[in-house]
Amino acid sequence: MSDRSDQVVQLPLPGFETAKRQWRSEFDGQMKDKPNPKNRSGVEVKPVYTSDDWDPSSYMDDLGFPGQLPMTRGIYPSMHRGRTWTQRQLIGLGTPEDFNERLKTLIASGASAGSLIPCNSVYRGYDGDEVDPLLLGTCGAVVNTVDDMEICFRDIPIGDFSTALNDPSPFTLLALLLAVAKRRQVPWNRISGTSNQSDYISHFVCNHMFFRLALPGARRVLTDHIVFAQKHLPGWNPLSVVGQHMQQGGATPAEAMGLTLSTAIQYANDCAARGLDPDDFLAKFTFFFDISISFFEEIAKFRAGRRIWQRIVRERFGAQNPKAWRFKFHAQTSGVDLTREQPLNNIARVTAQAIAGIFGGLQSLHTDAYDEVLSVPTEHAARIAISTQEILKREAHLTDVIDPLGGSYYVETLTNEMEEKILSVIEQIDEAGGMYAAVESGLVQKIVGDSALAFQDRVDQGEETIVGVNRFQVSEEDELPRQPLRPPQADVIEAQLERLKRYKSDRDQAAASRAEDDLARAAESEDENVFEKIVDAACAGVTHGEICHRLRDVYGFGNPLIVP
Amino acid sequence: MTLAQHDSFPPRVLVTKIGFDGHDRGSRIVASFLRDAGMEVIYTPPWQEISQVVRLALEEDVDVVGVSSLSTDHLLMPKLMKALDEAGLGHVKVVVGGIVPDEDEALLMDAGVSKVFHPGVGREEIVGGVAEYAAQARQLRSEELVT
């Protein structure tokens, strides 16, 4: 007894330091020289965090309150307490009829928003009659004409429904939707939703699911489409900047965030150069991110991204409108983390990813189906993906408290460290002359490609464990109650092609040709709004493929700029 | 496949994507694996026409064609196999990597595809497999030349 009290007296240090030192020596004794792990973005992760790492007295500088600068804790005062996120599952099935049926089912089960995924032939800028019919409708809806779009939204009041269109440049799906609205006499100012994946830069760099307008053409059409939305579509978000492509393509979470913010800076500069007011256009910017399974890293990525963005819009663009400071984002759980081995394990992975996104403060969430790595998702797997969101919300009560990890020594430190990493990427892109120039030179492709390889190396060397793949392999496979979606029957596709043929022969040919010529003229001109002419063309009966071809004639095909 | 063969004439491999999909992370990674393993890799961007693949395979005199598929582009494989055969490239071995549903694998194998590498297959297995198929292709070709 007396020995111990002597010890206390002999130590002049406060309890915290003593305790820490003791912990350190015990920890080192047990762990020997095992180095700290690093997260995917290269941040070294310590075994424990304290006020040495993040000092709570910097609360107001670092966090503030939800909906307040610096926005770390979320962009709205009530965040998920007030309104949980939008559940946006991607849907895209063979024909417009299939899509319409599926959409109605979703609406019957309570969905207030939908999203349209077109067939890959549409992504590539072709109509159904110019491609191998074998692939038509195998991974999305074949939508080429106003009639097709009309069927997609049959019996659906498009003026009261939010639609996300997976619709890269030149935004023909939006043009077709507006043409349907015109037919139905629904005023355009009631059309709401998002041009998903309007970010041509991320398409150029990573997944290449775009129409291959060459870079200058893609840039022109995007800016025109933002200008058009500003004028005619108050309920439309014309821009979704896609970090998801960057990260799925191989960028680390910090790189993906940095490159995405640099992309948004590029677009904001392009809008400002057109004389648009940052307070207006920045309030319409939205983002789309990947959520990997690197749990805390993702949470810190989103918190840091939010904090950086409000600084960028205020400092670089002078935005005064608080709506312009909001970093609104949709997120999707990462398909790259899912495994073919023991695919039911993917439900656990998606759950962890989704929690990270929710704690990161997302506005909209897509949870992947567990069988996405096997095929186009089945109904069964899609249902589980949606239930996962409901369980997290209603059973696990993840939405009761706003930014529940705020103030955690670890999360705050990691948020600061991720912020540094992200800022260094933005600086690198600034030095390269901005995102457009950095893509033209191949710098961005190199960053992403190098990181993809580095991650694969870590997996191959067992530094990253993937259960069932490089550890804990089992010989028996999960029995899946799957009924795989099969490609549409040949006769269904034939009927679709027949309809396209009839559409082309029945339309007012002279009006369609005039509209096409107008479009080409606008594309060649310096001052006309090209997107306005795309909408006019859609209204005059010009098809998706024809619009894309006319634009390609003027702007040329874009090469994917792959860096070997 | 002996190392000696491998060393003197490194396998020539075309890594490509057909159809509409543009996700090329997989094909780029595999191309650099194979290159790092000492093979001569001819790499293309996505969206190659079947005729372009055949022409490249001929001009570049490849032993193996590797096709990466993420969505449903693998459904075109029977057409590619037929086209290669018609061009007199029956000796060339063809492998597919990416997302191929189990229920479609038979379609590919029946069409003459040598192997489907599913997600999760490691670098060594891919490199080893391709090297072996390259050796088989050389063997087949030398037999063809003799006869």
Structural description of this entry:
The complex is a heterodimer of chains A (564) and B (147). By secondary structure, chain A is an alpha/beta fold. Chain A has a single domain (56-460), classed as TIM Barrel (Alpha-Beta Barrel), CATH 3.20.20.240. Chain A has 23 helices and 9 strands. Chain A has a 5-stranded parallel beta sheet with strand order 1-9-8-7-6. In chain A, strands 2-3-4-5 form a 4-stranded parallel beta sheet. In chain A, helix 14 packs parallel to helix 15, helix 21 packs antiparallel against helix 22 (530-539) and helix 21 (509-524) packs parallel to helix 23 (544-555). Chain A is globular. In chain A, 50% of the residues are buried. With 147 residues, chain B is of the alpha/beta class. Chain B has a single domain (3-146), classed as Rossmann fold, CATH 3.40.50.280. Chain B is built from 6 helices and 5 strands, in the order H-E-H-E-H-E-H-E-H-E-H. Chain B has helices at residues 3-8, 25-36, 50-59, 77-86, 102-110, 123-146, and strands at 12-16, 40-43, 64-69, 93-98, 115-117. Chain B has a 5-stranded parallel beta sheet with strand order 2-1-3-4-5, with helices on both faces. The A-B interface holds A 119-121, 123-124, 131-132, 134-135, 138-139, 203, 206-210, 248-250, 336, 339-341, 373-376, 449, 452-453, 456, 459-460, 466, 468-470, 484, 487, 559-560, 562, 564 and B 19-25, 28-29, 32, 43, 45-47, 71-73, 75-76, 79, 99, 101-103, 118-120, 122-124.
List the helices and strands and how they pair.
The complex is a heterodimer of chains A (564) and B (147).
Chain A: H1 2-10, H2 15-31, H3 59-62, H4 79-82, E1 86-87, H5 96-108, E2 113-116, H6 120-123, H7 146-152, E3 162-166, H8 172-184, E4 192-196, H9 200-207, H10 215-232, E5 236-237, E6 239-242, H11 243-248, H12 253-273, H13 278-281, E7 285-291, H14 295-315, E8 329-333, H15 345-359, E9 364-366, H16 379-395, H17 409-431, H18 435-440, H19 443-460, H20 490-506, H21 509-524, H22 530-539, H23 544-555
Parallel strand pairs in A: 1-9, 2-3, 3-4, 4-5, 6-7, 7-8, 8-9
Helix pairs in contact in A: 5-7, 7-8, 8-22, 10-23, 12-14, 12-17, 14-15, 14-17, 15-16, 21-22, 21-23
Chain B: H1 3-8, E1 12-16, H2 25-36, E2 40-43, H3 50-59, E3 64-69, H4 77-86, E4 93-98, H5 102-110, E5 115-117, H6 123-146
Parallel strand pairs in B: 1-2, 1-3, 3-4, 4-5
